[in-house]
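cron nightly-structures :: item 1 of 1
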Amino acid sequence: NTMFRTYIFIPLFNTLIFLYQNATAESLGVAIILLTLLIRFILFPLFYKSTKSQIIMQKLQPLIQKIQHDHKDDKEKQAKALMDLYRNNNVNPFMSILMVFVQIPILIGLYKLFAIDFSNLQINELYSFVSAPESINSMFLGLIDLKNRSMLMVGLAAIAQYFQGTSALPKTEKGKELSAMEKMAKQMVYMGPAFTLLILWQLPSALGLYWLVTSLFSIVQQVYINKRVKITDK
């Protein structure tokens, strides 16, 4: 807990306050947006590898199914053929799972950060070069108090989550039977927004704003990676 607070929560807390004081005209909402974008740019290489791996695995599904069919009676040949396919496409089938575990500490840190009482800041945890604000302006666009719940913010976050899910779906031919992975991906398009609504409706809208921004960033990232990914069947 001490290491988590020292190396994750406190740096995030100080970065948010520094941005609030120096780059946002004292707007908590803008500071949260900038912090979210900063984190996503820093982690972009990791997200890129994870998302690229996921896209390639989706595009390789027809080849994977063909290998599984052709070598259904010889598991050793099947495993070798699959490993050759993964190696030739420079993909690790476990990368997406690994990235989930890498992101968990940061996500927990952001959750704790945006859930704190901004009217009663822990000034003693500020670095010496970060000045303490006299007060925090938690109103965003003059409409939403980021310290309180907001169904508008939750709704926007859920909509962004839906479009993020659709942008990650692989293109499939009409009438074609979907693989287990493709069926799961389609289900997640709807489960993601439902999960967003379930979690965020009872939390401060600061978390909803973070969720909204990171989902929009993910959509742009997904489109960018989709255009760059190439696969080979060798």
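cron nightly-structures :: done
Residues 75 and 122 are 58 Å apart (CA to CA).
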